[in-house]
Structure formats: structure tokens, C-alpha cells
Design a protein that fits this description.
There is one protein chain. Helix 1 packs parallel to helix 2 and helix 1 packs across helix 8. The protein is α/β, with parallel strands linked by helices and about 375 residues long. It contains 13 helices and 14 strands. The chain has two domains: about 290 residues, 3-Layer(aba) Sandwich (Rossmann fold); about 80 residues, 3-Layer(aba) Sandwich (Rossmann fold), CATH 3.40.50.10860. The termini are far apart.
């Protein structure tokens, strides 16, 4: 095995920008190229597990904005990104694929209680950085490429220890790092002459913050609305303004109706090839048969349709990502396209129950009586699936 692990660090210039789906897509592409891949995620918050981190986003958010807790094989409660990693790679992951500042402090606490720290005062950079370094090197040593998603936004104080550790490992020539910055592409339509113009200040400022933290982005990926046409010259200009080594290393990540369309779009832009070239792996590049391409074909060719109701306390695409994905995959096997209707007792769900073909009662120990009522009504009105 190589002595120097290859790390793709994925950082965000803006919160909730889709780094997890992008990371999973990149893992899939690298796998399809014949390489072994390990996804890792670091969250700088004090929470022990990423699945408990602020499930509600934004002031005044409704319960429909609650995000999924994805339980890994060993019982660790990850967030929705852990589910994306497993679905894109078809690999099973453990708590070792996730790290938070809360877990780091817990490790220090355990080491102190076990008398493994015999030097008196516990210094943040001496011990915490050592734990992070060991985690990265241990998890990356058995893969050709490690895709590391850094949670939060560039410049967050909570993640500085990870940036510092990556810089240290890089300066010690223990790892090779390719940094991808994901940023929003804001379009302004009210400029002089009603012409479309971009606003790249967030991108340029985030690029500079990343540079000052020691991780100069090798590439910028813009999140854009679906079907938005952006002249290549505009992207090159942004690449030049920010200071990219190669101004052509600017890519697009559109809002697809189906997230599994993203890997092919990234491949068509040669992002995976450029990453492999950076690590000196391009000569080994062998494209495999596209698993996701077959999945997409199956979804588009489904002949039958089924209307499925899902009833629970916090039912939405965000809180039941894995259930929705499982239903879609099962539907393809049955040559069926499944449409989901989210139901709870804040609405007149009984009328909706009469029009569905099947019903799933969401998991969880809360909201029990309401679930029983919905199930009883469905049974008494001849909804037996």
C-alpha cells in the first residue's frame, strides 16, 4: 500500500449546500474508475454524534425541516450524509467514518480516566491534533482515495483543528490533499439593462478564508439551478478572480430532480479524471459498467405506478430520506414508480388515506396514539397493504 494517503477535502462556502451528496457522488465515480474509496466526515460541533446536531434549520422552522438520523451498522447515530455514502458506494460504514469535536473530547476524557495521559495539563493541539491525525491516517491507509467532507462553513472556529491537522500532515508529506470548495452561484436579474449577472463575493471571500487556513482550493464547484446556462468565460473569470492555479478548474453541480444524475454530470466535466491525474492515478483509470446508470434507466422505464402514504410525526423528504430511497429501489425491482404522500394529523389525512394504494407507519416511539389512529382508520376502510 502507498505510504502517502490521497485525501480529497470537500469544504463549503455556504451552509447546507449539499456537500454530502457531492461527496457520495465523487466516491461512486472513483469506485467506478477501479479505485477503493473511504468517505470520512468531520463535524466541528461538540455533539458526540452527528445525528443529534440541530435537526431544525433556521429560526422559526417547522417540524417538516427535521433531518434524518441515519443509524450505522454498529449503532452510531450519523446524519443523512452517512446514508448517502452507503447508498452511493454500497459499502457499510461504522462510527470510524465520522468524527466530531464532542467525540474528540470524549476520547480525551477516557484517556485521562485510564491514566494514559501522564503529563499533567492536557493541551489542545498536542493531544487533540494527535487524535485527529491518527484517525485520518488510520482510516485512509487502506484506500486509494479518501473523500473527507468537512461539515459547516469555511471559517467556522469549530473546524479549525481539522484544517490545522491537515496542514500539518501535508507539510510533513504524510498525505496528499486535493481541496474542492463548493459555493453557491447567485444570479442577479435586476442589474442595468436587465442582464443576468453573477455575484461572486461569497465565493471569493470563502476562497481567501480557505487559503488563509492553509487549504488552497484546487477546484471550485458551483451549486446552480437546474438548466441554468452559464458561459464558460464567466466561470473562467471567477476562477481567475479567486486565484485558482488553473482557472479552468471550475465545475457545476445542478439541482437535479434525482440526485443519482449528478455522478454522470461530474464525469462529463472530467472532475474525476482531473482528481486522479492530480494524485498520479490517471494511468490506472479503467471505467466500469455504470451501476447508477442502470438504476436511472430502471426508474425511467417503470410501467406501473403506486401511491404510497407515509404517516408519522415529522414526515418529509428530509426526515425519511432512507425510507424514500428504499421505496424507490424496491419499486424499480417491481417495475413500479412509487409516489409518496407525506401524512400527519395536522392535516385532513383521512381523506388522503382513502386514495392511496399502500400505507407505511413511520418509525419512532413518539406520536404513538396518532399512528394507531391512522392505522386503525386505514384498516377499517379497506386499505390492507
Amino acid at each position: 500500500m502507498k505510504n502517502k494517503p490521497n485525501i480529497v477535502a470537500i469544504i463549503g462556502a455556504y451552509p447546507d449546500i449539499g456537500k454530502g451528496i457531492f461527496a457520495g457522488s465523487l466516491c461512486y465515480l472513483l469506485q467506478e474508475s477501479g479505485f477503493s474509496v473511504s468517505p470520512l466526515k468531520f463535524d466541528g460541533y461538540i455533539n458526540y454524534s452527528s445525528g443529534t446536531m440541530n435537526p431544525y434549520h433556521g429560526e422559526g422552522s417547522s417540524k417538516y425541516n427535521e433531518e434524518e438520523v441515519f443509524v450505522l451498522y454498529d449503532g452510531y447515530e450519523g446524519d443523512a450524509d452517512s446514508g448517502y455514502y452507503e447508498r452511493f458506494t454500497h459499502n457499510i460504514f461504522s462510527n470510524r467514518s465520522n468524527m466530531t469535536n464532542g467525540r474528540l473530547f470524549s476520547i480525551i476524557h477516557d484517556m485521562e480516566n485510564e491514566n494514559k495521559l501522564k503529563h499533567g495539563q492536557i493541551f489542545t493541539y498536542r493531544y487533540i491534533r494527535k487524535i485527529v491525525s491518527d484517525w485520518i491516517l488510520e482510516e485512509a491507509k487502506n484506500s486509494d482515495v479518501t473523500v473527507m467532507e468537512i461539515g459547516g462553513t469555511i471559517g467556522d472556529k469549530e473546524s479549525e483543528i481539522l484544517f490545522d491537522t491537515l496542514n500539518l500532515l501535508k507539510s510533513q508529506q504524510k498525505i496528499a490533499v486535493y481541496t474542492i470548495m463548493i459555493s453557491p452561484y447567485f444570479v442577479h436579474t435586476e442589474s442595468a439593462g436587465l442582464e443576468m449577472s453573477y455575484r461572486s463575493k461569497i465565493t471569493r471571500q470563502a476562497f481567501e478564508r480557505s487559503w488563509r487556513l492553509g487549504l488552497m482550493p484546487n477546484a471550485i464547484v458551483f451549486r446552480v439551478p437546474k438548466n441554468l446556462q452559464i458561459p464558460r468565460n464567466d466561470l473562467d473569470l471567477i476562477g481567475s478572480d479567486t486565484g485558482l492555479q488553473d482557472e479552468k478548474d471550475v465545475y457545476l453541480d445542478p439541482d437535479f430532480d434525482n440526485i443519482y444524475e449528478l455522478p454522470k454530470y461530474m464525469h462529463d466535466q472530467s472532475l474525476d479524471k482531473n482528481i486522479l491525474k492530480y494524485f498520479g492515478l490517471n494511468k490506472l483509470f479503467v471505467r466500469k459498467t455504470g451501476r447508477l446508470e442502470k438504476y436511472m434507466q430502471g426508474m425511467k422505464s417503470a410501467k406501473k405506478e403506486l401511491l404510497l402514504g407515509v404517516f408519522g410525526k415529522t414526515v418529509s423528504d428530509d426526515s425519511f430520506v432512507s425510507l424514500r430511497e428504499a421505496v424507490d429501489h424496491a419499486g424499480i425491482i417491481q417495475n413500479t414508480k412509487v409516489k409518496i404522500i407525506w401524512l400527519d394529523d395536522s392535516q385532513d389525512y383521512k381523506q388522503d388515506l382513502l386514495g392511496i394504494d399502500a400505507l407505511i407507519i413511520g418509525e419512532g416511539l413518539e406520536y404513538v396514539q396518532q399512528k394507531i389512529d391512522a392505522l386503525t382508520y386505514a384498516r377499517e376502510n379497506s386499505i390492507h397493504n
